[in-house]
């Protein structure tokens, strides 16, 4: 708790009006890789409390669209369409698909993480499953050339997931933002250039 309260990024988030320190992770990756541009359609998976949605809606502007989804409730973010529900359930995915109304997505961002049980193997398996779900959604809904940014923890299943991403995108790179705690095994995989054939089937 002390680490959280004294954390530089937590203090900055409060001072600058961001919902969470995670906002800085997305900003840093975006500054490096230029993911967010005006007019884009962005889907934010695992959005609560809303830090990434805030950054996304600010950068896509009034001509863009941000759809956010989370199991937890999220206080409204101006310009963001929020769906509360479990991403693993078909009905929730159907609602998200309905809201898109056939419009292809430019960017999928996923900061989803499982509820930590403390059992490392279980937590790792859940983390990989959430990343796989994000990849499946992205492969179906991204426009050709679209991008996916997804959180995953290094460990069992990481290499296999990275290979699965490499099959769906022209390029896959690892990003570890400065605002991600050093002792955390979390990294972000960025899939650049969704291949058109990954949308089939």
How are the strands ordered across the major sheet?
A: 3-2-1-4-5-7-6
Low-confidence stretches: none
CATH-defined topology: Rossmann fold
Distance between the termini: 47 Å
Q: Helical region count?
A: 7
Strand content: 15-25%
Helix content: 25-40%
Please identify the top-level CATH class.
Answer: Alpha Beta
Domain count: the total is 1
Name the CATH superfamily assignment. Answer: Vaccinia Virus protein VP39
Please characterize this protein's 3D structure:
The chain is α/β, with parallel strands linked by helices. It has one domain: 3-Layer(aba) Sandwich (Rossmann fold). It is 40% helix and 25% strand. The chain contains 7 helices and 7 strands, in the order αααβαββαβαβαββ.
In short:
With 201 residues, the chain is of the alpha/beta class. The chain is 40% helix and 25% strand. The protein is built from seven helices and seven strands; from the N terminus they run αααβαββαβαβαββ.
SSE blueprint and pairings:
Elements: H1 2-6, H2 8-16, H3 22-33, E1 41-45, H4 51-60, E2 65-70, E3 80-84, H5 90-100, E4 105-110, H6 120-141, E5 142-153, H7 158-168, E6 169-175, E7 186-194
Parallel strand pairs: 1-2, 1-4, 2-3, 4-5
Antiparallel strand pairs: 5-7, 6-7
Using brief descriptors, characterize the structure shown.
201 residues, alpha/beta, Rossmann fold, 7-stranded mixed beta sheet, 40% helix, globular
């Amino acid at each position: 708790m002390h680490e959280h309260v004294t954390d530089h990024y937590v203090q900055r988030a409060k001072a600058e009006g961001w919902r969470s320190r995670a906002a800085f992770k997305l900003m840093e990756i975006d500054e490096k890789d230029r993911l967010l541009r005006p007019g884009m359609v962005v889907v934010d998976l695992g959005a609560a409390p809303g830090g990434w949605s805030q950054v996304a809606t600010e950068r896509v502007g009034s001509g863009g669209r941000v759809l956010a989804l989370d199991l937890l409730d999220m206080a409204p973010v101006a310009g963001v369409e929020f769906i509360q529900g479990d991403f693993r359930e078909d009905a929730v995915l159907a609602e998200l698909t309905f809201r898109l109304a056939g419009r292809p997505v430019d960017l999928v961002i996923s900061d989803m993480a499982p509820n930590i049980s403390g059992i490392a193997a279980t937590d790792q398996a859940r983390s990989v499953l959430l990343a796989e779900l994000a990849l499946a959604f992205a492969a179906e809904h991204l426009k050709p050339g679209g991008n996916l940014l997804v959180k995953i923890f290094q460990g069992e299943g990481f290499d296999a997931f990275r290979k699965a991403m490499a099959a769906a995108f022209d390029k896959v790179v690892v990003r570890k933002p400065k605002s991600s705690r050093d002792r955390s095994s979390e990294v972000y995989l960025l899939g650049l250039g969704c291949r058109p054939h990954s949308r089939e089937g």
